[in-house]
Design brief:
The chain has 284 residues and is an alpha+beta fold. The chain has helices at 29-39, 50-57, 61-73, 89-101, 104-119, 163-170, 174-183, 197-210, 252-273, and strands spanning 77-79, 85-87, 122-129, 132-139, 156-158, 213-216, 223-231, 237-246. It has two domains: 1-87, Arc Repressor Mutant, subunit A; 93-273, GAF domain (Beta-Lactamase, 2-Layer Sandwich), CATH 3.30.450.40.
Length: 284
């Protein structure tokens, strides 16, 4: 192993495995190190101090500090009151651009439009971004436009009281889910917002069993929603789609019975466009 390469434990799948060894003169060592620092931040380790990063990358404290304050000045890192750091909003902007370039929104949008018209409801596409859901796209029914409180594309919502958020949280690997739950404050948003973490954990298990996540006036009064998973070719849940409708129009149980199958079918169609294939049942 070269002196410039350091390996890290296997459980840090999303972390920087090493500082790359790019020896050609045309490559920038500073850029290598800056990107390696950003890759240190993961769902299980969202907040890091200078010493954490320096130890992980086998760099000196002074060198690490110089790179970190530069990334902070550029908006790629955010400093907390504890003097530690987390990823900044500019990383999210890059992530949204990357998602757009993979075709997620392009693949999903026609299906969102079809479901919105069929369901006479708002249909949204979202991804998990730390303790929040980031809305990537929406489609609105012509019959209900202006009658439902909508989130805008680019808006965010707390995961614990949002159908898409709970769906995405429920499908995280156990260590990542546990780490994220430890950081979440269960603030009240609607009359039925879940108020304790044990109840939230039980709700997440139900969601894993049914593949549908409900929002029964949890995010806002008089608003109901259900969400279903979007998967990629590796069968990982990478996004969610959600039907949102006024509570006066239908009960949650009727929403799940009448539109749940259409929601799941639409999520499957989007997943297939992204390379997802259902496992074939074995016959013996």
């Amino acid at each position: 192993m070269s002196p410039r390469t350091r390996r890290f434990p296997a459980d840090r799948d999303m972390a920087a495995e090493s500082i790359p060894t790019l020896r050609e003169p045309r490559y920038s060592q500073s850029l290598e190190r800056g990107l390696a620092i950003l890759r240190c931040f993961t769902a299980s380790r969202p907040v890091l101090g200078i010493s954490d990063i320096a130890d992980e990358l086998d760099m000196s404290r002074s060198t690490t500090h110089r790179y970190v304050i530069t990334l902070h000045a550029l908006g790629y890192l955010e400093q907390l009151a504890s003097r530690k750091y987390r990823l900044g909003l500019n990383v999210t902007t890059l992530g949204m651009s990357a998602l757009a370039s993979t075709g997620l929104q392009d693949h999903a949008h026609p299906y969102l439009e079809d479901l919105a018209q069929h369901a006479a409801a708002t249909v949204s596409l979202g991804v998990l971004d730390g303790p929040e859901v980031l809305y990537l796209d929406q489609a609105h029914s012509y019959r209900r436009r202006g009658r439902t409180r909508h989130a805008r594309t680019g808006a965010r919502a707390s995961v614990h009281c949002n159908a898409m958020g709970k769906l995405l949280l429920a499908n995280l690997p156990e260590p990542e889910q546990r780490a994220l739950l430890a950081t979440i404050k269960l603030e009240r948003h609607g009359p039925n917002t879940i108020k304790n973490k044990q109840a939230l954990r039980e709700a997440l298990q139900d969601i894993r069993d049914t593949n549908v996540a409900p929002d029964d006036e949890e995010m806002a009064e008089r608003v109901l929603a259900i969400a279903a998973p979007v998967r990629n070719a590796a069968r990982a849940v990478i996004a969610a789609i959600e039907i949102t409708i006024p509570s006066g129009a239908i009960s949650l149980s009727d929403l799940e019975k009448t539109l749940g199958p259409h929601l799941l079918a639409t999520a499957d169609r989007i997943s297939v466009r992204l390379g997802y294939r259902r496992r074939q049942a074995s016959h013996g």
